[in-house]
Amino acid sequence: ASENFFEDNPRFEYLRFFVSDIRPSLRRKEEDFWALNAYQPAFDFIDSALRDGRCVLVHCLAGAHRAGSLGCAYLMYRADLSLDESIKKAKMLRPIINPFGGLLETLHYLDADLKRRRNDRAETRGDGSNDGYDKNKDGEGKEEPNCGT
What we know:
The protein has four helices and no strands. By secondary structure, the chain is mainly alpha-helical. The chain has a domain at 31-125: Protein tyrosine phosphatase superfamily (Protein-Tyrosine Phosphatase, Chain A, Alpha-Beta Complex), CATH 3.90.190. The two termini are 24 Å apart. Mean pLDDT is 82; it is low at 130-142. It is an enzyme of class 3 (hydrolase). Residues 120-149 are annotated as: Disordered. Belongs to the protein-tyrosine phosphatase family. Non-receptor class dual specificity subfamily. It comes from Helicotheca tamesis.
C-alpha cells in the first residue's frame, strides 16, 4: 500500500477502505446483500464528499486493481451500470484498471446485489419497472466539483 502523505493536514479527509478484504469466501450464506453492505461505507464516504462539492481520490499503489475495483463498484452503485459497463467506462478514463481474481468475483456479487435491490424496490412500488434508483437524486442541479481533471 502507498503512504497517506497528507493525513495530518485538516484539508484532507481519509477513509481507509480495504477492498481486498471483501472476499466471497468470508460471506455468510444467510447474509443478504453482503457485497453491497461491505462496500457501503466507501459509497457513503464518496457520496458525502460529492454532495458537499468536494473531490475524492481513490488510490492504492498502482491504481489498477484495488482502486480500480472500487471505482467500478461506485459506478455500478451510483450510475446504475452493470459490471461490464462499469469496467468499460472506468477503462475509458484510466486504461490500466483491471479488476481480477477475488476483486472481480466480489464485483460480480455486488452486481447481483444491486440488480436484486432494484427488483425488490420495483416490486415494492408495484409499477413493474426495475429501476429502483433515481440516478439524479443527489446531484440534480448541482455543479460538479472542479477536481483538477
